[in-house]
Amino acid sequence: xxxxxxxxxxxxxxxxxxxxxxxxxxxxxxxxxxxxxxxxxxxxxxxxxxxxxxxxxxxxxxxxxxxxxxxxxxxxxxxxxxxxxxxxxxxxxxxxxxxxxxxxxxxxxxxxxxxxxxxxxxxxxxxxxxxxxxxxxxxxxxxxxxxxxxxxxxxxxxxxxxxxxxxxxxxxxxxxxxxxxxxxxxxxxxxxxxxxxxxxxxxxxxxxxxxxxxxxxxxxxxxxxxxxxxxxxxxxxxxxxxxxxxxxxxxxxxxxxxxxxxxxxxxxxxxxxxxxxxxxxxxxxxxxxxxxxxxxxxxxxxxxxxxxxxxxxxxxxxxxxxxxxxxxxxxxxxxxxxxxxxxxxxxxxxxxxxxxxxxxxxxxxxxxxxxxxxxxxxxxxxxxxxxxxxxxxxxxxxxxxxxxxxxxxxxxxxxxxxxxxxxxxxxxxx
Length: 430
Ligand code: URA
What we know:
The chain is α/β, with parallel strands linked by helices. It is 43% helix and 16% strand.
């Protein structure tokens, strides 16, 4: 019989929790047998004292086992997924999953909704008319087996402990804790029944991790826990000092994803899609050159059309993106003076899109799939006074607020700033 207060006191005083205590505690908490006030206190001790590698692995495994663990062993091949820690304009999952599946690597992808200033893959997919991300687990497995990929939202059965713990962390100041973020992400991902995971850990003004040191620590923790749990895990640290690509907003990002698969996407989003695809193929022991072939011969695009249709969406959006929701109005955000774009607060840009309706301020809010921002300028670009930096595509909601945030988010200087940081910063694990 474990007394939760003993665990709180031990952790408070710098001691460690034993595996069996962690499993019993997470199980009891998921069932409602440990009150939130005790779990809150324990979360705060974890926030302050951290976890050893062994504690983190046990905590993650206990969360994973709090619900259903998908069994994909009937599907041949190395099943690989990708997870991004969240950025602005980060639509990469949309072109990446079909591209990798087109190369013969099964991609069972379970994604989330937008969180704060960052967009969510599910919201983007649902801007495709008819597309359903709520598929029963059996159908999801069938999609991965037959088409090579499935794109769904987290079901109530996957890692229910995370759902409860995340809600509690949100109101107890314990979200930004590396062990708690690690266990939250890895428990959900590993419950998908994957063999390998590629993590895109974002660093910079639009990321949750603003410094390279924090992003590196998170990447190392996630890779470490994955390896302890017998999975192949590689993390790429990538730059998020400005939004990715040209589009920020759900349907706009679907359009850009189609462009990437047609070979005419922006340079950075295309490079990131390819870099992550190479890493996933490498993990599945497939030749990475297949990725370039699947992009240039249109197999990635055809796979995207196939999964859209299989999940109830209208595949005609591929040839005719005007079938996607479109905002009624456009308004340019203009450069206030001549100069160079020397800094972009990407989080501010994400929040500008959010107030237009592209994201949610609270979990209950509906999003407007059509609205968002189309960026014309990047870090380091020279602009003339009155020249459009970006265009707001809107439905007459939140425009003044968005313009206000954009004014604060863009810094102009007289001198050309140093060259922007490279997109790929480092690779950890593997
Ligand atoms: N995303 C998650 O899924 N969990 C966290 O704790 C933070 C980001």
